[in-house]
Design brief:
Layout lengths: L1 H20 L6 E8 L3 H16 L5 E9 L3 H11 L3 E3 L2 H5 L6 E4 L3 H13 L4 E3 L7 H14 L3 E3 L7 H11 L6 E10 L15 H4 L3 H16 L3 E9 L4 E3 L18 E3 L5 E8 L4 E7 L7 E9 L3 E5 L5 E5 L6 E4 L20 H18 L7 H20 L3 E2 L11
Parallel strand pairs: 1-2, 1-4, 2-3, 4-5, 5-6, 7-12
Antiparallel strand pairs: 7-13, 8-11, 8-17, 9-10, 11-12, 13-14, 14-15, 15-16
Helix pairs in contact: 2-10, 5-6, 6-11, 9-11
């Protein structure tokens, strides 16, 4: 008993000595304002809180201060479940609050431009989901407004943060697969494969902009440019295979909202499927394919990069694996582990998987770091603009049946 007491006293003295000699860092709280408390808004909220656990060295901590949503149920969820201190119905009230240090813009596509410009005008750094604007013009105006206001930004290109992608990027830059010759990107999903899927705003050109090009392939465009380099011209074709859908009920808002067979129908105004051939600035050729009506794939988002000495493959559905062929024996599977990107912050060793939410936590940490350091670290509004220029060029090519040049964007792009 006495021996145990001495042992505990030794531990206490050691802890006191460590604490007295340790440097105490001052951590600043940053008040978060959330605009729209849907699925993505809830994910942003969880990601902010998770950064304190996975990125303890950050000199800032996110405080869930205020959430804005016109829906009363969503506002209740923000306070009762997510832990926001305050809620408002109008996002303008949130942006006018001097206590708000940064905002997450998780509203539907057709509100992005309006809200992002208002955030820039208010001097609030913002994290916005993609597609950033309904067009390249809207995306350009958002990026230029942020640059003019001198604020940092973040865009939700979460797939580039997968540790396997970080490893793939390093291998390509180290010359492990030689000179890149071509890339293939396929973003195939089934979320709109049911003809009875309701005609929500996502199928309306005025509110969504493009269809699968902006919704899915903007991710693919960003991922390819992140790994291979800028795209300079494209040739594309698109098709809308499910041309009419049942009109939605009052509460239908998501990809998965469903109508009934006897409901009145309306026209689908944007594309279900897109195929794009591209030429990269470095001479490589790319092929991009995307569908929101594929029967079979749920979220089969993959990229393949081929070089003169090897190739590599990654699929989001197996996000912790990278397939690498750098010898004549062909492909081998490499499991993501502590040496890959940010993996070690989430799991101790290869074989223990990271998930989708973890990728958003990396995003949140990059955004908070950008705000704390006053410099762009996260994928920027300029990156969002770059992807939008590819989307618009592809749409123009599909209309004209011609190759279309992709304009280079101005501003700070990260990794392109």
């Amino acid at each position: 008993m006495l021996q145990a007491l001495f042992y505990h006293n030794d531990i206490l003295m050691a802890l006191q000595s460590t604490c007295s000699n340790a440097r105490i860092d001052v951590v600043k709280n940053l008040n978060v304002g959330l605009i729209s408390v849907g699925w993505m808004g809830r994910l942003h909220s969880r990601a902010y809180l998770a950064t304190a656990h996975h990125y303890p060295e950050l000199p800032v901590r996110a405080v869930l201060k205020c959430a804005a949503d016109p829906d009363a149920g969503s506002r209740s969820h923000a306070t009762d479940t997510l832990g926001y201190q305050e809620v408002v119905s109008d996002y303008r009230e949130l942006l006018a609050d001097p206590a708000i240090d940064l905002v997450s813009i998780c509203a539907p596509n057709f509100l992005h431009h309006e809200i992002a410009l208002a955030a820039a005008s208010a001097g609030k750094p913002f994290w916005i989901e993609k597609p950033m604007g309904r067009s390249a013009q809207e995306s350009r105006e958002i990026a230029e407004a942020a640059a003019g206001a001198g604020i940092v930004t973040a865009v939700g290109f979460n797939y580039r943060h997968a540790p396997a992608i970080a490893r793939a990027r390093q291998l390509i830059r180290d010359g492990a697969i030689g000179e890149v010759t071509n890339a293939r990107v396929a973003f195939l999903a089934d979320y709109s494969s049911d003809p009875l899927g309701a005609l929500t705003w996502r199928f309306e050109r005025a509110r969504a902009g493009s269809g699968v090009l902006g919704d899915l392939l903007s991710h693919g465009f960003d991922l390819a440019q992140y790994l291979v380099g800028p795209v300079v011209r494209v040739s594309a074709d698109t098709e809308t295979y499910i041309r009419r859908r049942p009109l939605p009920s009052a509460d239908a808002a998501s990809h998965f909202s469903r109508g009934t067979a006897d409901a009145p129908t309306g026209d689908v105004e944007n594309e279900d499927y897109a195929i794009v051939t591209a030429r990269f600035e470095n001479g490589a050729i790319g092929v991009f394919e995307s569908s929101r009506i594929a029967v079979g794939p749920h979220a089969e988002y993959n990229i393949e990069v081929y070089g003169t000495r090897g190739s590599l493959r990654w699929d989001f559905q197996r996000l912790n694996e990278l397939r690498l062929a750098d010898t004549p024996s062909g492909y081998r599977t490499i499991m993501a582990g502590p040496a890959f990107g940010e993996f070690a912050r989430f799991q101790p060793g290869a074989g223990t998987s990271m998930g989708f939410d973890d990728l958003k936590t990396i995003e949140a940490a990059l955004f908070l770091r950008s705000v704390a350091e006053g410099r762009q670290v996260a994928p920027s509004a300029a990156d969002g603009w770059a992807a939008a220029e590819m989307v618009d060029a592809a749409l123009h090519s599909a209309e004209t049946r011609a190759w279309v040049d992709v304009p280079r964007v101005e501003g700070t792009t990260i990794g392109i």
